[in-house]
Amino acid sequence: MGTLYVIATPIGNLEDLTLRAIRLLREVQLIAAEDTRHTRRLLQRYEITTRTVSYHEHNKLARRELLLQALSEGDIALVSDAGTPAINDPGYELVVAAIEAGFAVSPVPGPSAPLAALVASGLPTAQWTYLGFLPSKRTERRAFLGEYARLATTLLCFETPHRLADALADIQQAWGDRRICVARELTKLHEEFVRGQVSDVIAHFAAHPPRGEFVLVIEGYSAPPAPSDPQADWQALARSRLHALQAAGIAGGAAAKQVAKELGVGRGDVYGLWVALNDEQTTTE
Ligand code: SAM
Predict the structure, then answer these.
(1) How many folded domains does the chain comprise?
(2) Crossing angle (nearest 10°) for helices 60-73 and 92-100
(3) pLDDT tens digits, residue range 167-188?
(4) The domain containing residue 248 runs over which residues?
(5) pTM, 2 dp
(6) Is residue 181 lining ligand 1, measured as CB closer than 6 Å?
(7) Mutational pocket test of ligand 1: of 92, 214, 216, the residue with most ligand atoms within 8 Å of the beta carbon
(8) What CATH number is given to the structural domain containing 89?
(9) Same domain, 156 and 198
(10) Is 56 close to ligand 1, i.e. is its CB under 6 Å away?
(11) So what's the pLDDT on residue 282?
């Protein structure tokens, strides 16, 4: 019984391949690759000569039996063009099929664009939600964004360069002018992080037309601060002023008169606080 190894590969920098990934890519009997020509470049770089077979969106069902048969004969590796298979890449169905058929499935962790963007974004990492690609049509995108408007976790999504400006405008409309980090060309020569409020980032990309690959990391929802209670506010202020005047030896009537004048409230109301203050002090003594 073989094992299906789900192997992460570089998202731009060919050095980002783990030692375990290199060893397993050499040792397995077959590599299922999203695009065999693309993967060949990586394999050549590491002088790996293992046989490859294509496994992509359009043949994943047809390939199922062949790959399960291969697993019954030995280990196989699954790779996508870049990053971690099954994360917006082919792989999920094969993992499920392998588990159902009783084969072991083992991950070989490594690069993944959303995680790489998150950890360098400067936005909270404790809780986050991965949304994949935003819908390409504006009406659907706006409805989709609306569903996540009150989610407090950091939000991550992919966008293409030609839709970036529209997507940012819709994000601002649906979620407000939150903090955002647009991560571009991660691990590549022109790696860049554009951080700021959504409006800052919109202005940046209006001046610098977007090119390359992008991950958007956006701050989650936070409830606006509750409106302050003016009643509680003046009473707290009045109490602290009364305390100070009492310590300075001012009598109750005069203190209430002065504080009422300072705060623009009724002298009787302030005197009530003075009485309560003195009652409290008597009880605690
Ligand atoms: N499975 C992949 C992973 O784990 O990274 C993600 C695959 S998804 C089809 C590809 C998208 O990821 C790209 O369109 C882009 O939005 C993002 N992406 C991939 N590589 C990137 C990079 N080097 N820099 C920024 N974004 C990248």
Answers:
(1) 3
(2) 40
(3) 999 999 999 999 999 999 999 9
(4) 230-284
(5) 0.82
(6) no
(7) 214
(8) 3.40.1010.10
(9) yes
(10) no
(11) 66
